Amino acid sequence: MGSLLDLWTTRYDEMKAIIVAIPSLAEQTTIANFLDRKTAQIDQAISIKEKQ
Fold it and tell me: What residues contact 23, with CB distance under 8 A and at least 6 apart?
């Protein structure tokens, strides 16, 4: 956690120890498709509200 407190003084040795989870390409695609559908639904709802 200390490496996140002051990013400007964080050294490469500290940064390379941070673990980042990266989903598989298939999972990334599934997530992107889900977000595309939900965004379209939100856009449609906004459009309906603006017409009211």
Answer: 31
pLDDT value at residue 5: 61
- DSSP-assigned letters across all residues of 9-48: G--HHHHTT-------HHHHHHHHHHHHHHHHHHHHHHHH
Say if residue 3's pLDDT is above 60.
no
Contact 25, 39 (CB under 8 A): no
**Do the Cβ atoms of 3 and 15 come closer than 8 Å?**
yes
pLDDT tens digit string along 6-16? 667 777 887 88
